[in-house]
Amino acid sequence: MKISAVIPTINEEKTIGSVIDGLNQLGNVEVIIVDTNSTDRTREIAASKGARVIEEPRRGYGVAYKAGLKEITGEIVVCLDGDGTYPTDIIRPLIDVLLMDGVDFISCDRITLRTEKSYTTLHYVGNGVLTKTIGLLFKTSLKDSQSGMWIFRPYLYRKMKNLSDGMSFSQDIKIEAMRLGTLIEVPIRYGVRITKPKLKTWRDGFSNLFYVFIKRVSSSSD
User: Fold this and answer.
1) Per-domain residue ranges for the chain?
2) Which fold does the domain 3-221 belong to in CATH?
3) Residue 71 DSSP SS3
4) What's residue 53's pLDDT?
5) In sequence order, what are the residues at sequence separation of 6 or more whose Cβ sits closer than 8 angstroms to the Cβ of residue 158?
6) Closest CA to 42 of 20, 61, 22, 62
7) What is the mean pLDDT of each successive set of 10 residues along the chain, which is 222 residues long?
8) How many CB atoms lie within 10 A of CB 67?
9) Second label for 17, Cα 20 to 30 Å away, from 54, 141, 200, 213?
10) Maximal C-alpha separation, the chain
11) CB of 13 closer than 8 Å to CB of 85
């Protein structure tokens, strides 16, 4: 079974090589890197590891993912960050769960096994506010609405609507997955970041909260 892995990047030269090495251990995998104007050696390192590199000059978390997901050819899709915080060695067991349990979408839960080093109290509280708001508006029971590692079937993604171009793409794709199919969360050990974070905590947090309500209104009008 062919696996497509999609990773958005910007200045990940310190970690992207090891992430791709981990993905290559899966066997029949295509790695698609969507690079948004890195000024370091991210693109060169990724290409040297056998990844396909797509250059996307427009900024935006959702923009990058949409560009990469257009190009997938695999029967299973893996999405994760290029900063080494998400474990690649758990992907194969997660794919087995996806197939054996007949689910459509697995989202990796960073909260259950959280440590202060890997996931700060500020992010924990902010994530909690967003997750509870999503639960109230969409009647869901997510533990980690902002997780950036997912394994899913591509047909489900192709049916999704109203996905954000920004950071709220992460919560949007989970809301759509629950609306259209079967989603489960699996706890993972989230790693310690060694590169500069791309997330702007306060700005992106309030933006994501705002877009939860936009998503609710747009969903009601469909």
Assistant:
1) 3-221
2) Spore Coat Polysaccharide Biosynthesis Protein SpsA; Chain A (3.90.550)
3) coil
4) 98
5) none
6) 20
7) 97 97 97 97 98 95 98 98 96 97 97 84 87 92 96 98 94 97 96 66 72 77 60
8) 20
9) 200
10) 47
11) no
52-55/105-109 β-pairing? unpaired
What's the pLDDT score for residue 69?
Answer: 98
Q: Provide the β-strand partners of residue 36.
A: none
- Residue 179 Ramachandran class (φ > 0 left, ψ -120 to 50 alpha, else beta): alpha
Question: Are 83 and 118 within 8 A, CB to CB?
Answer: no
Distance CA 183, CA 105 (A): 5
Q: What is the pLDDT of residues 106-142, one digit of tens each?
A: 999 999 998 877 777 888 898 999 999 999 999 989 9
Plot region of 37 (φ>0 → left; ψ -120 to 50 → alpha; else → beta): left
Please give the Cα distance from 198 to 60 (Å, whole number): 11
Residue whose entry in the numeric block shows the structure tokens 């969409």: 138
